[in-house]
User: Which sequence fits this backbone?
């Protein structure tokens, strides 16, 4: 028996399509690689619902992510598509997959280290930098410096390697 995927929505097919949608700011990553794709379901009515979490509050790419997911699912034959924004728990750079981290390095972007762990309550104020060394994605040297806390996107910092002198972006830990 041959199943027409355009008539019979399956959660497996919907998830496969949603996992292939790329991030608008880091197009070498899919939303799944980035860890923002939280869920894909198909309701009894055949409607596909995809849940995504923005990388941070006010992320300007969220509208583009929603539109790309909607367009990708509709192009795959799903006629009823709903995109939900899931805010709890908030996204963390720890959700970037190992494959996503590999792709970042491959494209000259340093992946983030582990996200900071904090106890609940007031956020402590630290007046001096406490960041761990960031390895250069070009030569691997840990002798790098931050040039600007913000780069092409609010999620990245601009760094330079002192060994090979190449500039590179680093995804900040969130």
Assistant:
């Amino acid at each position: 028996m041959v199943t027409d995927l355009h008539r019979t929505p399956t959660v497996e097919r919907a998830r496969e399509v949603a996992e292939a949608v790329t991030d608008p700011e880091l197009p070498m990553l899919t939303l799944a690689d980035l860890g923002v794709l939280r869920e894909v379901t198909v309701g009894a009515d055949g409607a596909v619902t995809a849940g995504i979490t923005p990388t941070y509050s006010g992320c300007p790419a969220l509208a583009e992510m929603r539109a790309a997911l909607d367009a990708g699912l509709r192009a795959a034959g799903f006629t009823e598509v709903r995109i939900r924004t899931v805010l709890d728990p908030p996204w963390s750079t720890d959700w970037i997959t190992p494959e996503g981290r590999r792709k970042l390095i491959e494209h000259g972007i340093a992946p983030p280290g582990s996200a900071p762990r904090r106890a609940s309550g007031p956020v402590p104020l630290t007046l001096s930098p406490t960041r761990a060394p960031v390895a250069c994605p070009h030569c691997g040297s840990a002798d790098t410096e931050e040039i600007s806390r913000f780069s092409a996107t609010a999620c990245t910092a601009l760094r330079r390697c002192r060994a090979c002198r190449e500039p590179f972006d680093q995804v900040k830990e969130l």
